[in-house]
Each structure stands twice: as C-alpha cells, then as structure tokens.
Design a protein that fits this description.
Elements (H helix, E strand, L loop, with lengths): L1 H4 L19 H10 L15 H6 L5 H29 L5 H18 L3 H17 L7 H12 L6 H11 L4 H23 L4 H10 L1 H17 L8 H9 L11
Helix pairs in contact: 4-5, 4-8, 4-9, 4-11, 5-7, 6-7, 6-8, 8-9, 9-10, 9-11
Length: 255
Amino acid sequence: MAALLGEPSVPESPTQDSPGPDLMPLQVLQLLQLCDSALPVGGSAHSFGLETLVAEELLTVETLEEFLHAYLTEAGLLEGVFFGRGHRLAQVTEPGEFLTRWRALNAELSALKLARESRQASTMMGRRLLHLVQGWFSEERLALAQQVALREDGTSHYALAAGLLCGLLGINERVALAAFLQQQSAALLAACQRLLPLGQRRAMLLLWQLKPTLLAVTGQALGYLERGEEPWQWTPLVELGSLRHPHLETRLFIS
C-alpha cells in the first residue's frame, strides 16, 4: 500500500517547534467552525477515489492506518502547501494583483489534480465554502474570490479557499494548517465508515494516532512555503481509484 502511494517523507517523531502567536478566543471559535468536518460544503459526498479502492479490495480495515499515513504525507502535503499559499494571499491588498494570483494558484492546483472527479470535487467544495461564508464578514478580497467562484469558471479549490479565509481572519498559519489537515483526515475516516466495517471507536483511535503525522506534514508544508519549493505528490493508487470511480456499478459517493 505504501509503495503504491509513495514512501512517507516526513519524520516519524516531528519536532515540537513554536506554533507562533496565541489565538484569540474568537479566532479559536472561528477556526473550530471552519475546520469542522461537518461543515456543509459537500465533503460527505466525496470519497476521492477511496470507494473504488474498497470495491476492488485494495483498501481494507487492516490496511487503513498504513494507507492514511501514506496518503497524508503525499496528498496531504500538496493540499497543505496550497492551503498555506491561500493563507499568505490574504497579505496581498491590491485587488488586481490579488485576482491575478488567485486565478493562477487555482489553475496550478487544477493541473496537479490528474483525476477529473477529484479535481471537480475540490472546486465544488471550494465554491460552496465561499458561498457559505457570504455575510459572515465583510472583506474586499473575499468578495473578489466569491465573484470568481460564482460568476466565472468556478475554479476555486477548497484548500485555497479555506486558507484564504483563515488568513483574512488573522488566524495563525501553522495552527490553521494543522486544523485543516485534521479536518481532511476526519472526512476520509467518515467516508471509510460508510464503506468499511469501521466502527466509531476504531475511527477515533485512528484519528488520534494520526496526529504526529499531521503535525509532521504541517511542518513540511511550511518548509516548502518558506523555501518557495513546488509541491508534488506520488499517489498512483488514489489517482487510479479516482479515474475508475465513474465505472463502478453502484456508488455511494460522487467521487
């Protein structure tokens, strides 16, 4: 399983570096709401290829923990870097430059998502997130991103939209990124509970055990951002699962 996804490229025991400035109580509550796995953006309708892997008996309860660790170190790293790029885009105050960079980042992430279903799922969730927060707070750059999502081609990926929102709210980047990756992990486990004989107790244990990996991937993503490195992922098993998903006879998920 790990060989098909790519060997984990993060340390098993990440260093505990400083998370940065403390969050204000209001920011804590805002982050909890934005990174709630139950946020109504359509995440529960997508398995991102996992349904195919289960149907083809390539993913089981016994291999799930290994799979999730490998998935996070590859796909999680890619999503984390683009979450950070969205977060840092909140520092761009000139509207024209913001729009140019917003479109460019979304186009780049689209190009890195090879499977059509997973690419569409990401943009669908991003659009819904931006639509959901209309009226929550007033900000010119948020309004510009919403216009792109709702009036143009709709290419507004979820990781970028979530990162931008956290950046505009002034939520610490490291903390926000870790919370985002936790949300993504919880969503994957929720999908697996519908696909596999996986109980709530086991699912929560797996999510607890994933936390060192989540923190390691968070640190690695921030390192990529600081060095200006381009992210990449090697997840052929997941990509093939996403590509074959439309041909399943019975489907619970859109992707």
